[in-house]
Design a protein that fits this description.
The protein is mostly beta strands and 696 residues long. It has 4 domains: 11-28 and 622-694, Immunoglobulin-like, CATH 2.60.40; 51-164, Lipocalin; 171-295, YVTN repeat-like/Quinoprotein amine dehydrogenase (Methylamine Dehydrogenase, Chain H, 7 Propeller); 345-618, YVTN repeat-like/Quinoprotein amine dehydrogenase (Methylamine Dehydrogenase, Chain H), CATH 2.130.10. The protein contains no helices and 64 strands. A 4-stranded antiparallel sheet has the order 1-64-61-62, with no helix packed on it. Strands 2-59-60-63 form a 4-stranded antiparallel sheet, with no helix packed on it. Mean pLDDT is 76; it is low at 1-33, 39-47 and 336-342.
Length: 696
């Protein structure tokens, strides 16, 4: 009988034939591969940033409805917001000239902001263009606006307080981006590609030429005799504009994402490539641009500006990202600017996720459509919401200095406080079982609260654990406490009024979260990753294994054969615990924020992702190993197989008959990618059958 990791059909080889491919199943439960992010709430607690200009020590960021933000980037590793200004419309692009910033603001046209005092930017004037202002460039006394369906608009800004239209040109497509060099404006016009407009007479601009790019022209930059077009799915296009009346495409590079914007500095083009982040392209030979490096930002790169050794990337909901490009082949992230919001804990009940959102209290998120989670209600607790549990119509919030708060969530759109109990210290985690809430109360250990009357919760007992109670899980008559540096503590709560410590295990890391399944407690222990503790004898818990996660394990949930670890900066990690003695990382997803807590319901994982709120993941089926071919040469068999997981060890085995009674190992190797090759040097001329399995 084959074991669960080795099911499937067999491949056979003899000395004559190269056999057809056939499938071996990498068996396992339904959730085994990398989770797929399908939703985010709120995506970010502010408008997405879309474009940036840099002047001196300041980055000027277009942030949609939030207007213009001024970021001090004198220390690129630590950008600081110093000021902001409300534009009349959603700011989508910005240019800076002199002491003024010029913002393209959609239906509100061109807005002029005095930034001579970066800490106190002031709107001084504007001009409502006839179209929808997407992009802007400034040269001398004129602002050139890419005005969507209204084409190119030329605005006289010699008097910034009273800008006035001088002229325009109705391009054949919607104008999305614009760059100016000499007497010419180069306009990215979507499906109408690159248009060259003579603006030597600003009152009467004239089209003199154009070039059909292969994609959708979103943005443009000009350097020397070349225009560089961010061409959406077609990547970067290089256009020779030495003769503006006859621009010619000379080269291009199809980036892996969706080219939204481009900046050029020296021999390099820097492409904001949407989900693929920042791409650096060597354009020293314009006819043959070559990729040299990239940095996959955490959001979606919409805009880019380069100043000195730094690229400044507007990264949608991930804010402003600063990337060191002093070595273009190895761009390095150095800093970003965020706003507030810190989701710490999460619980799921029915169609709703309940998020403990720090200073923002309890947030109720409708996850009936996991791809589109939406907030339907909230209650601003009096403390700092760190943990949450849900039972029936009530959410129980570990509210830090404010103890336990009970919130009626029978109407998720209108949660109501019904009662509370002031624990003696810092409530950080909570679990509910029957009529009792069990609170991890920091230095005060475990506190037991009778919640049989939710409007009047009553403290009934407590147990002082040896250190800092950070998290708690309850199974049967025992509460399992993640006790910080003291590891796992086991508390007998059969008499809730007199809980008693019966055992503990000093984990090697800092115990922050705990989940219990069957006879095992799974403890998130910071730098020490996931620890598996046998609690079949609660008085004598024993460590049986551990799995090193990538960052700092802060929370854990268990479903079926998998433990799901909230691993802070490394996001969600998926650990196969089907054999608790040999846990194995199977996949993961690096979330945009800091994963502090996790809950699993059905096929979905819900991650409390710090500043980024709630992330919802689909947990896909485990991939199937596929033997694609077996080639026999001079007594050696070479086995090719796919769908391997990088970093996972695979063993190739053989037997000589279909009884499958005597499998022999050929060898074990660690997969470097999704395709693997192993050789059986002793295949000889005899018929052999092969199978491949991963090693836990």
């Amino acid at each position: 009988m084959k074991d669960r990791k080795q099911t499937g059909r067999l491949a056979t080889i003899n000395h004559v034939y190269v056999l057809a491919a056939l499938t071996l199943v990498l068996a396992g439960p339904a959730q085994g591969a990398d989770p797929v992010l399908i939703g985010q709430w709120p995506g970010w607690p502010r408008e997405p940033v879309q474009n940036v200009a840099v002047s001196g020590n300041y980055a000027y960021v277009a942030t949609g409805q939030a207007g213009l933000l001024v970021i001090d980037v004198s220390d690129p590793a630590n950008p600081q917001r110093v000021g902001g200004c409300d534009t009349n419309g959603p700011a989508s692009a910005v240019a800076v000239s002199g002491g003024n910033a010029y913002a393209a603001t959609g239906q509100a046209g061109l807005q002029v902001i005095d930034v001579s005092d970066p800490a106190h930017p002031q709107r001084v004037g504007g001009y409502d263009t006839s179209g929808f202002a997407y992009g802007v460039a400034v040269s001398g006394n004129y602002a050139y606006v890419a005005d969507g369906p209204a084409g190119l608009q030329v605005i006289d800004v010699s008097d910034p307080a009273h800008p006035r239209r001088m002229g325009g040109y109705n391009t054949s497509g919607s104008a999305y981006g614009v760059a100016v060099s000499g007497h010419y404006a180069y306009v990215a016009t979507g499906q109408a590609h690159l248009q060259v407009i003579d603006v030597s007479d600003p009152a009467n601009p004239q089209r003199v030429g154009g070039c059909d790019t292969s994609g959708f022209a979103n943005g443009v930059a000009v350097s020397g005799n070349y225009a560089y077009v961010a061409d959406a799915h077609a990547g970067l296009q290089v256009i020779d504009v030495s003769d503006p009346t006859n621009p010619q495409r000379v080269g291009g590079y199809d980036t892996s994402g969706y080219a939204e914007a481009v900046a050029v500095s020296g021999n390099y083009a820097y492409v904001a490539d949407a989900w693929e982040g920042l791409q650096v392209i060597d354009v020293s030979d314009p006819a043959h641009p070559q990729p040299v490096g990239g940095y996959n930002t955490s959001g979606s790169a919409y805009g880019v500006a380069v100043s000195g050794n730094y690229a400044y990337v507007t990264d949608d909901y991930a804010g402003l990202q600063v990337v060191d490009v002093s070595d273009p082949a190895q761009p390095q992230w150095v800093g970003n600017y965020d706003t507030t919001g810190n989701a710490h804990g999460v619980a799921v009940s029915g169609n709703y996720a309940y998020v403990a959102d720090d200073e923002s209290g309890l947030q109720v998120i409708d996850v009936s459509d996991p791809a589109q989670p939406r907030r339907v209600g909230y209650y601003d607790t009096s403390g700092y919401a760190f943990g949450v549990a849900v039972s029936g119509n009530y959410a129980y919030v570990a509210d830090f200095v404010a103890g336990l708060q009970v919130i009626d969530v029978s109407n998720p759109a209108n949660p109501q406080w019904v009662g509370g109990c002031n624990t003696s210290d810092l409530a950080e985690g909570v679990a509910v079982s029957g009529n009792y809430a069990y609170v991890a109360d920091g230095p005060a250990g475990l506190q037991v609260i009778d919640v049989s009357n939710p409007a009047n919760p009553q403290w009934v007992g407590g147990c002082n654990t040896s250190d800092l109670a950070e998290g708690v899980a309850v199974s049967g008559n025992y509460a399992y406490v993640a006790d910080g540096p003291a590891g796992l503590q086991v508390i007998d709560v059969s008499d809730p009024a007199h809980p008693q410590r019966v055992g503990g295990y000093d984990t090697s890391g800092y115990a922050l979260g705990v989940a219990v399944s069957g006879n095992y407690a799974y403890v998130a222990t910071g730098r020490a990753g996931l620890q598996v503790i046998d609690v079949s004898d609660p008085a004598h818990p024993q460590r049986v294994s551990g799995c090193n996660t990538s960052d700092y394990a802060s929370g854990v949930a268990v479903s079926g054969d998998y433990a799901y670890v909230a691993d802070e900066e490394a996001g969600l990690q998926v650990i196969d615990v089907s054999d608790p003695a040999h846990p194995r990382r199977m996949g993961g997803y690096n979330t945009s924020g800091s994963a502090y807590g996790v809950a699993v319901s059905g096929n979905y994982a819900y991650v409390a992702d710090g500043d980024w709120g709630l992330a919802v993941f689909n947990l896909p089926s485990a991939p199937h190993l596929l033997i694609t071919s077996i080639i026999h040469t001079s007594g050696t068999a070479t086995v090719y197989y796919t769908h391997t997981i990088p970093g996972t060890a695979y063993t190739l085995e053989y037997c000589t008959d279909l009884s499958m009674a005597n499998w022999q190992p050929v060898g074990t190797q660690t997969a470097a990618g999704s395709i693997a090759v192993q050789t059986d040097p002793a295949a000889g001329d005899a018929q052999r059958y092969y199978r491949v399995s991963y090693q836990p």
